[in-house]
Amino acid sequence: MAKSKSSPKYICTNCEQPHLTLMGRCHSCGKFNTIVENKEVAEAINTSKAVASKSSITCLPGKNRARSLNEVEANKNFRLKTGIEEFDRVMGGGVVRNSVSVITAPPGAGKSTLLIKIANTVAKLGYSTLYATGEEDETQVKNRADRVLDEISENLKIVASNSMEDIKTSIEEEDAVFIVLDSIQAVGLSHIDSSIGSIKQTYESARVITKMAKDKDKPRAVIIVGQKTKDDEMAGSRQLEHLVDTIIHLEGENDLKMLRGTKNRFGDIDEVGMFEMTAEGMNEAQDISMRLITDRKEGVAGSALSVIREGKRPIVVEIESLVSKCHTAYPTRNCENFKRETLNMLVSVVSKKALIRMDDQDVLMKPTGDIRVTESASNLASVMSIISSARDKAIPLGVVFVGEVGLTGEVKKVNYLEARVKEADRLGFREIIIPNQPLKLNEEELNIKVTRVTDINECKKRFEM
């Protein structure tokens, strides 16, 4: 690694050419007796020597003093609600005024479409809002806004520039309270000798916008776009991640998008926001369960329903399996949006404990919709979808399965069972199959029938498979 160059100790008063040693003649301009000591460097050296001469526990006096935490006045109105519930949910109830948040997503995922809608919604609430873009010009942003917004607020201003100085000046002139910067890797500072998008430019630009956001006299809410690398990670050094307060990711390859937090200093990261990409832009997906379930008039072999949790939200998902005769030496085990290791484990459990031969059968599995199923609470539904397809017998409509399946074939307890039962009951399902565990609900007040099973064979027998 190359060593950084130290500041010159001497400088020419005529041409300001730095010199490492005191010389009689400047080799740059040719003038005599113009080289003098660099005062800034001399002062820094003298200060460091003074500090070093003191004992190790002695330091220069500071300005701030410690005080009792009880004396600190809490600000109860520090959150700015954007009015977009799915976004506010992920942010912990709204955007904190003196904070910087980063939203990342793969190219074309819809982050700019979502942010222009958020910015316009905040502007309609009466807040001075600035949309700063370093990737597009004003016309491109205006065309998108005309396409996805019904009406553009007069409080929404735009600045298109790669200069962080220009953006800083615009924020101050417009007295902006809410700022969107798209993207942090597309802007830079003129005094930094590196290209825009470099780690140094990105970090220093983020420091400038963070300082403005955390101004005690004028706190601001800032959302910056962070580009992703080919490894699906946010571009830039880890310093950027530590600098900001919130990091959220926009996920989803199809129309269904999920907003998920990985860091939030002002809230938890258990919440997930659901959006649908349409021709009119990014819209909130309020009741996502009905979108993930196939509307059928009668049951189909290989389909089973479960209730998973995305964040704190229970969602009913449909898991489909296809079991067919293998015509090669090794049977296929393929899955989509599902862990392959889990599929292999469940197939082995079905073969050993449910006594269904699987060594000569191909097994394919996927949840419907663009959603990834990773929760162990979906194990029982996955097993039943495999058995249903293997037996070529449909599970009756209106039945939901919740439970983890162990290697012994037993159906084990799951967390947040009450929320899952309530969601299935709210959506009008007629029966839910759960583990043999207590339910902190009055089952008589539920419209859904609650059936408990201890292992997969009991469940298999329940549906005569």
Describe this structure in words.
By secondary structure, this protein is of the alpha/beta class. Helix content is 27%, strand content 24%. It contains twelve helices and 23 strands. The protein has helices at 39-53, 85-91, 111-124, 138-148, 164-174, 199-213, 238-243, 289-292, 340-353, 379-391, 417-426, 456-462, and strands at residues 10-12, 18-19, 35-37, 79-80, 95-96, 99-104, 129-133, 156-160, 178-182, 221-226, 246-251, 256-264, 272-278, 281-284, 303-310, 313-325, 333-335, 361-367, 399-401, 404-405, 411-412, 431-435, 449-453. The chain has a nine-stranded mixed beta sheet with strand order 8-7-9-10-6-11-12-13-14, with helices on both faces. Strands 17-18-16-15-19-22-23 form a seven-stranded mixed beta sheet. A three-stranded antiparallel beta sheet has the order 2-1-3. Helix 6 (199-213) links the parallel strand 9 (178-182) and strand 10 (221-226). Helix 9 (340-353) crosses helix 10 (379-391). The model is unreliable at 1-6 (pLDDT under 50).
